Fold this sequence. Notes:
The complex is a heterodimer of chains A (181) and B (142). Chain A is an all-alpha fold and 181 residues long. Chain A is 78% helix and 0% strand. Chain A contains 8 helices and no strands. Chain A has helices at residues 2-10, 14-34, 38-63, 76-93, 105-108, 111-121, 127-135, 137-180. The longest helix of chain A is centred in the C-terminal third of the chain and has 44 residues, at 137-180. The N and C termini of chain A lie far apart (65 Å). The model of chain A is unreliable at 164-181 (pLDDT under 50). Chain B has 142 residues and is an all-alpha fold. In chain B, helix 1 (5-27) packs antiparallel against helix 2 (36-54). The chains are: A mainly alpha (181), B mainly alpha (142).
Amino acid sequence: MVLTALAFAVIRNLFAVVMLSGMFSLTAAVLYVVMDAVDVAFTEAAVGAGIATVLGLATLALIGVTRERLSTRSHIGPFLLAMLTGGVLITSTFDMPAYGDPEAPINRHVAPRYIEESGREIGIPNVVTSVLASYRGYDTLGEVTVIFTAAAGVLVLLGRARRRRPVADDAGNAERNEAAE
Amino acid sequence: MRRQPVLRVTSKTLLPVILLFALYVQFHGDFGPGGGFQAGVIFASGFILYALLFGVANARRVAPGGLIRMTLASGVLLYAGVGVAGILLGGNYLDYSVLAHDPVHGQHLGIMLIEFGVGMTVASAMITIFFIFAGQDHGDEE
C-alpha cells in the first residue's frame, strides 16, 4: 500500500493513477479481511476498487486529459505542511492501544453490551447489521441522505446540460413527425 | 466494445449472477456480511458493467432516468417513513420494536425495510452518477 501511494505521487499518467487507486483499494480490502472486518472489506472492494475506478475512467474520458501538467510553482510550503501533519499522525498512533487489546477503551464502552444483548434484543446473528441499522439508525439515515444529496448534486450540476439536447431533439422529432403526417 | 465477443459473452453470463448476488447480500445481511449499502453497490456495478459493454443508451432503456430518480428518492423516504411509522405506533423515531407485536420481530421487520431503502438509494445514486458521467461525452459527439 505504501508503494502504491508513493507511485501515485510520482506517476504523471492519469490512467495509471486511476488503475493504481483501484489496486490500493483492493489491497485495503484484503487488509480489512485479515482484520476480520468483512463488512468493511466488502464495501471497500465494491466501491473503492469497482465503482470508483470506473467513475475515474469515465471522468478521464470526459475531460480528455491523460497526463497531469507539472506546475512550476514552489512546493516547499505544502511539502512541509504535509510532513508536519503526517508526523503528528504517526506520533499519535504510538499512544493507541494494541490491536485487539481487550482493555482498550473502544472494547470496554458499549461494544460488550452490543455483543451480549443484541442477540436477545434484535435477534439477528450479524451484530454489525444490528448496530448499523438499529442502535445507530440515525447515523445510517444520515449516510443515506448524504448519498442521496450527492446524486442530487451531480444531477443538478451535470444533468441539466445533458438533458437540454435530447429535449430539443424530441421537439425536432415531433415537428418532423407532424410534417410527415 | 462491439467486437469483443469474449467480454460480451462472459459478462452476459455473469450479469444475472451479479444481480442475484446483490439481492442475496441485501436480504441475507442479517446473517452474513453485507447489507443494503453493499447490495446497492453490487447491483449498480452489474448495471455499469452492462452499460460499459452494450452502450449507455441500451442500459438507459433498461433503467430510464425517471425510474432511477424515483427509486433514488423513495429509498430515503422508505427509511425515514419507517421511522415515522415507529412514532405513529407509539414508539420513538426509528424504534422498530413497535412495528410488530413482538419487539424482536419488529426489529427484524424494521431492519429489513430500512436496509431495502438503503439499497435502493445507493444503487440508484451510483447508476445516476455513472449515467451522467458517461452520458456527457456522448452528448458532445452528437
